[in-house]
Amino acid sequence: MIDELKQIVGAANVLTGADMARYASDWTGKYVSQPLAVARPANTAEVSALVKWANRTGTPVVPVSGNSGLAGGTKADGALMISLERLKAIRDIRPQARMAIVEAGVILSDVHNAVEAQGLIFPLTFGAKGSAMIGGVLSTNAGGSNVLRYGNTRDLVLGIEAVLPTGEVMDIMSELHKDNSGYNLRHLLIGAEGTLGIITAAVLKLHPKPRAYATAMVAAPSLPAALDLLNRLQEVTGGCVEAFEYMPRLHIEVHKEIKPGAREPFDEPHEINILVEVGVTAPRDAIPGPDGQAPVAAYLEQVLADMFEEGAVLDAVVAQNEAQRREMWERREAAAEISLSRKPAIVSDIAVPLDKVDTFLTIMETRLPQVDPGARPVIVSHLGDGNIHYSVWPASQDEQVHDAIIEAVEEEVRKLGGSFSAEHGIGVSKLPSMRRRKNPVALAAMRAIKAALDPNGILNPGKLLP
Amino acid sequence: MIDELKQIVGAANVLTGADMARYASDWTGKYVSQPLAVARPANTAEVSALVKWANRTGTPVVPVSGNSGLAGGTKADGALMISLERLKAIRDIRPQARMAIVEAGVILSDVHNAVEAQGLIFPLTFGAKGSAMIGGVLSTNAGGSNVLRYGNTRDLVLGIEAVLPTGEVMDIMSELHKDNSGYNLRHLLIGAEGTLGIITAAVLKLHPKPRAYATAMVAAPSLPAALDLLNRLQEVTGGCVEAFEYMPRLHIEVHKEIKPGAREPFDEPHEINILVEVGVTAPRDAIPGPDGQAPVAAYLEQVLADMFEEGAVLDAVVAQNEAQRREMWERREAAAEISLSRKPAIVSDIAVPLDKVDTFLTIMETRLPQVDPGARPVIVSHLGDGNIHYSVWPASQDEQVHDAIIEAVEEEVRKLGGSFSAEHGIGVSKLPSMRRRKNPVALAAMRAIKAALDPNGILNPGKLLP
């Protein structure tokens, strides 16, 4: 078997035993597995040859690129891992058409750097950008910080090339903004977590690089008032709000405890603290005046002052320089450290409709103490996406109580029409939730599609579908 | 059989014979068929019961809503037509969450009116908006005039409810902006032309209503220069360009011939004439000053003046009032009359990458005379989408030559990575193109999905897939 793999990718690119270590364990360390081997193909044709071999021999295949997922999607016991890391060409950047054509093994931050040199951005970004690769980014439909303005990965891709479970190469590397010729297979493979095909290349949409940002901390009287603020800011900026991040009181307090020098955002403490960032491309909004301030910042100040007068905003501070902006972002970016500063922390990644975030949190104020009296929620939310990272510090040390907390969170999310996996995907970690909570008709349709495209069940088996 | 249908939807809602006339012929009059019967269910449960009956009896089913398609997607010989027209509830409008929940039989312009009363827009719009219904709009992934800014139908839908070919109801009426829990079945059914399921309801995304528009006619020195202009306008307006419509010299000339009072857009004739419209939501851009002009118009004038100085624009006229704006739009909207003012006209609906429109048109300048010396192209293009309505007035009266023209157009489009169906879909009209030009691996995958979800092949058979 190893010999056959070596014939396809060359002896140096078939790893076994201890050489597989960095592929066989993901970065969280939670998912450690025993692959059969790791193959590192040089191009799409070699990926195709490997998958054809696997399909013929009935060998499970697990694709891996940056391996920075959070859901165990690359767990590979008894499987051939196909690493996309050598497919690392940026094939083309076409600034006038606002697109980049890249292979699956290109690191996300390398895409950022290459297109920024052309005055453009690929706006998708998140913590693991320095190791995540395009293949995994697409396969998990990754989210991150700029989804509010630019959408998820799905919204930033025009075309893909993928090796199907039979080993055939499906070249739908469309560069088109309009194409109504049959089922949308691109959207089917994006977010399929490598269970329907291995994405080997993609056509990415680019956007103009904002010339200036205006950033503020805002205290709102309520979450519905905060949503009004977002809608109003979207209206007056023409949809240029890039971040709208909610941090409750506890976030601010723990931040001060664990970070030396961390400060309150306002003179008085407030319950609802929101980080707002607006990005503008128009020179008239961006070029600083004699006072050194970009017009967008003065403009944001004016909107916030108007809303303060109306009582729709309780307090607001606009960053006057990059240091003040960094301070605001550092407070937000400390979220993971804050939630993990006490152990155990029960984490979740949920989404509800935009106007139901308040309802969800209010319900949980009653429900959580019923399950575990004394438990405390540690929350941070991409409020503009309805995405809440709702973590809990339990009072009880009983694992059954911890499971009951997850159950309660997911049940209330379901009642509000929400999702138990907003951006991290299913992998193996959310299979129980998928089994219990996914609409059964939709789940059956997914299984039918999987069986139709992958009759031998070789591609990333045991992931996504329970 | 008719009795069974009557038991499901009531006697008054099963039509046969002459009563079927308005369903059995589409508005183009090109696709006339002989359905078995037309059933008009009142709700999703009745749609489900009808489809279960059809699946059990092996009866073909053709869904129909507004019946305003251009591709023959509702041709229904020997089939049960299921009309969605009675599913006409606007179930909910939630302005704060920017969404509307509507049923398949709601007419597009009724959605427009209902949400505009709330200061919002559902931006999708096209000529047939007064008869097209949401079910068909989603099933064909309809395009239209505002795609440049807001995307196709696909980009404006958060969730759907659909009756699958087995008759099961799939309720994925998500109101979420983020949901990574399994394959994206919404995107699979949108644009599937009723072959994978009958969409019965949808959650639509709404946008703020622009407060003011600035509209201009611009003469550009070349199509690449025009694309630069678009990119620059997108940059300075933060992506607020709503229309960017290219009309070549011939369009202007024929317009003057066929429309009394029609005028040249500029003092001097130009080859490349572009209608630009920018829509703004910010009060500071929209509220007219003492001169009655909204700031956005002055602003657009400034950008165009700067580009004129650089030679990137040859001439430009900004509409100073609504009458001037209407005149600009009437010139564009005369496109269908212009292309059909001589018979025969060979029409097409193609898309190429944004930066290949010029290449395509240049190639056709050589290729078209080789196929039919004396033939003239009549072009209008949604230039910002890469979508060209490339019609031809042939010199030859020979139908084989006309077929050769279509063949030449589609072949050059294919070489440039384009699509033979940008926005109208496949239906029955583009089945030959689908057979000859669609990527065969993608086509095989589509067939596998169709067979998996519709094993008895009852839903809209003979459409979309050759």
UniProtKB/TrEMBL annotation, chains A, B:
Q: Does the keyword Iron-sulfur apply?
A: no
Official protein name in the record: FAD-binding oxidoreductase
- Asked if the keyword Endoplasmic reticulum belongs to this entry, the reply reads no
Q: PANTHER family from the xrefs?
A: BLL6224 PROTEIN (PTHR43716:SF2), D-2-HYDROXYGLUTARATE DEHYDROGENASE, MITOCHONDRIAL (PTHR43716)
Domain FAD-binding PCMH-type: start-end pairs: 31-209
Question: Which sequence ranges are marked TM in the entry?
Answer: none
- What family does the Swiss-Prot or TrEMBL record give for this protein? Belongs to the FAD-binding oxidoreductase/transferase type 4 family.
User: What residue range is the signal peptide?
Assistant: none
Under the heading PROSITE patterns, the entry gives:
FAD_PCMH
Q: Which InterPro entries match?
A: FAD-bd_oxidored_4_C, FAD-bd_PCMH, FAD-bd_PCMH-like_sf, FAD-bd_PCMH_sub1, FAD-bd_PCMH_sub2, FAD-linked_Oxase-like_C, FAD-oxidored/transferase_4, Oxid_FAD_bind_N
User: What is any one GO biological process for this UniProt entry?
Assistant: respiratory electron transport chain
Q: Which GO terms describe its molecular function?
A: catalytic activity; FAD binding
Organism of provenance: Thalassobius vesicularis
Keywords from UniProt, A to Z, are:
FAD, Flavoprotein
Give the required cofactors: FAD
Database matches in Pfam families = FAD-oxidase_C, FAD_binding_4
